[in-house]
Known about the structure:
Blueprint (H helix, E strand, L loop, with lengths): L2 E6 L8 H4 L6 E7 L3 H10 L4 E3 L2 H5 L5 E4 L6 H10 L4 E4 L6 H14 L3 E4 L6 H11 L6 E9 L3 H5 L7 H4 L2 H4 L1 H12 L3 E9 L17 H4 L22 E8 L4 E7 L6 E8 L2 E6 L6 E5 L12 E4 L6 H19 L7 H18 L6 E2 L5 H8 L8
Parallel strand pairs: 1-2, 1-4, 2-3, 4-5, 5-6, 7-10
Antiparallel strand pairs: 7-11, 8-9, 8-15, 9-10, 11-12, 12-13, 13-14
Helix pairs in contact: 4-5, 5-13, 10-13
Organism: Paeniglutamicibacter kerguelensis
InterPro entries: Gfo/Idh/MocA-like_OxRdtase_N, Gfo/Idh/MocA_oxidoreduct, GFO_IDH_MocA-like_dom, NAD(P)-bd_dom_sf
Protein name: Dehydrogenase
Amino acid sequence: MDLKVGVVGFGLRSGLYEHAHRPGAGSVVTMVCDTSERGRADAAKKLPEARITADLGELLDAGLDAVLVLTPDNQHAVVAKRTLEAGIPTFCEKPLDVTLDAVDEVLETAFRTGTKLYVGHNMRHMPVVRQMREIIESGAIGAVKAVWCRHFVGNGGDYYFKDWHAERKNTTSLLLQKGAHDIDVIHWLAGGYTQRVSAVGDLAVYGDIESRRDNTDRRMGDWFSLQNWPPTEQTDLNPVIDVEDISMMQMTLDNGVLASYQQCHFTPDYWRNYTVIGTAGRLENFGDDAGNLIKVWNTRSQDGYVEADLEVEIEAAGGGHGGADPRLIAEFLRFAAEGGPTETSPVAARAAVAAGVLATESLRTDGSAKQVPALGGELLAYFAANQERAAV
């Protein structure tokens, strides 16, 4: 019998429903909840047989087997705590929320109720990330000692400065909202979590643009264009912009690995570059799409730039985010139905938020290092056991 799946929030990430709506093949989206008229109208068009409501309580009482929480970030915890309290296995889009207190409340609710919690860090399913991790785990570069990530967000003006993303009250910062992906990947490749973090950042470009518009009547598809260039010529930005458009953070992980992450929202190109340095070599990706390359150097040279000792082509995979989205939802639905290990982790999701929140605090004060508060041992043990309570 198909799992009955609900969706809360039918906006920017609503496309994930397509991977959960497989009537006769394992799961079907039977209900959508959205507080906006636009969201409900869009859901009704795409899922004409589903029940559409603005009342979360109605969804909680609908006898669902799983739910996707796809609301704006600052509503993740508010909704997820209620779905967990209702005993519904819950997929929560990343970041888990925009404050560390809210995130910890979600984890504590999942622990107390025993309800399965899954966080949508889809990059753990992206071929480029998985292949880099496989190379590292093979021992090809020795023990990891440093991870660097440069994120060129070429669509930053259209993606993040024309709607709710541009406001601190909704995101805390783009270093958290956008960076949570990369912070999680850094942690995964390095095999540890951030223990201490510092950062600098600035609203260097978009804050000076005077063309502003309330875009709540539109969606990104209504304004996105590669012709919106250069960044200083952008128009119709959000009325309030108080998040940084360039940020840089440094991390010391709990296993001694040093890491850095740089994010810029006004570059012409859009991709991520990771460099991982170990005791026996280093790897670096040149592009992050199918057909691009991951290169590994193991031979010492004094001739400046030399060709890599190993080149690995990034695999192709169908579906959004380089094939990550269908794998992400498939894993969640399997987890909701059967339990067992998953590539994503609520503890890792918490670690990404903690690093992003503390980095934001650092960059908005004096740039000094901030210590990440530890998660309680009982919660760590519970989630490490794939959300199974220890035998008494």
